[in-house]
Design brief:
By secondary structure, this protein is an alpha+beta fold. Helix content is 24%, strand content 29%. It has 2 domains: 2-33, no CATH class; 44-183, protein yfey like fold.
Length: 189
């Protein structure tokens, strides 16, 4: 009767040790990758937010995000629609054109770029964060506002932009994505 108890104890102690010796770095990375989800702490680049990348289908993005992306009413054509996370993260919308994510719109003040830019930052903060890489254009609808457009220097990112909308003082919303969609003032309208 003692042997089954000893066997259970040895198994419980030795299995985690054995697993650490038999798990390859690729297996561990794969296990960790599956736990990545789209959250308020997900950082935004010129072509992604956390694990979700411009160019993905909604199905691919939902799997990567760990949350289903659902269509929201967007007033657009079937070739241009908006999606949002079903649960969790609010203030983040995905523009989908021709079946693939083309742009990511951010209104959530907790979501930041890789450099830390976010809703509520001053125009001067944005210009300082991206010194020499910001083009300033007048806002289409906000009389005192501007579009502060980050133009990447890296060749592989030349077809992407980060576009901050301001009221003339502070960032009110922003978006990232590929040209030309990132520059569409009215989204899918």
């Amino acid at each position: 009767m003692r042997y089954p108890v000893v066997l259970v104890i040895l198994t419980a102690v030795l299995m985690p040790i054995f697993h650490s010796f038999t798990s390859s770095p690729q297996m561990i990375a794969s296990e960790n990758k599956q736990s990545v989800h789209l959250t308020q702490t997900s950082k935004v680049s010129v072509n992604s937010i956390g694990p979700v990348k411009v160019g993905m289908t909604i199905e691919e993005a939902s799997r990567a995000a760990g949350v289903k992306l659902i269509q929201r009413s967007s007033g657009g054509e079937p070739s241009c629609l908006y999606y949002k996370p079903q649960t969790g993260l609010s203030g983040v919308d995905f523009m989908v054109t021709d079946g693939r994510i083309s742009r990511i719109d951010i209104a959530n003040p907790k979501v930041t770029t890789l450099s830390g830019a976010k809703v509520g930052d001053s125009e001067n903060q944005i210009k300082s964060l991206y010194a020499g890489q910001i083009q300033v254009e007048p806002h289409e609808y906000e009389p005192l506002g501007h579009y502060l457009i980050f133009v990447p220097q890296d060749l592989q990112d030349q077809s992407y932009r980060v576009l901050f909308e301001t009221d003339g003082k502070k960032v009110t919303r922003w978006r990232v994505g590929k040209l030309p969609e990132v520059g569409w003032v009215e989204g899918c309208a």
